[in-house]
Amino acid sequence: MAFNSALMLSQETIAWPNPIEVLIDQLENESSKRDFTREERALMDIYETVPILQSDDSLHEFWQSGMDHQRIINSFELIGATSLVDPLNASRWCETRPEDRNDYSETEANHLATIEEELIDGMDELIELVLDFIEEEIN
Fold first, then answer.
1. Domain span at residue 40?
2. Do residues 20 and 130 make contact, with C-beta atoms less than 8 angstroms apart?
3. How many domains does the chain have?
4. Averaged pLDDT for residues 11-28
């Protein structure tokens, strides 16, 4: 059963504000010289994960990747993005599914599409949460 991924194509890609981009660049430059704090690691996890979550395969790609899924979920939770944590946890079953999303049953594909709608809604508040997190925890 082919899965229609047009749902994710309708989502606008997050354009990180300059203060976030500057901090990410600074952290990337320092990464070889020192270990990140938990807060810095959370910020990097989120920054690196968002493009995957906004890709055509979204949650399926996230769960099929070799990322440290639980650490990333904990990173979203640390910044207060529960509206993203819930869809991530709800889609955990994708980790044990076939590598090709087109191999999902119609029921699985429909269920995942519903979860991805929640994910898109949660992305709306992500920039504000990250900016607040940086102000409170990193600066």
1. 18-25+35-138
2. yes
3. 1
4. 89
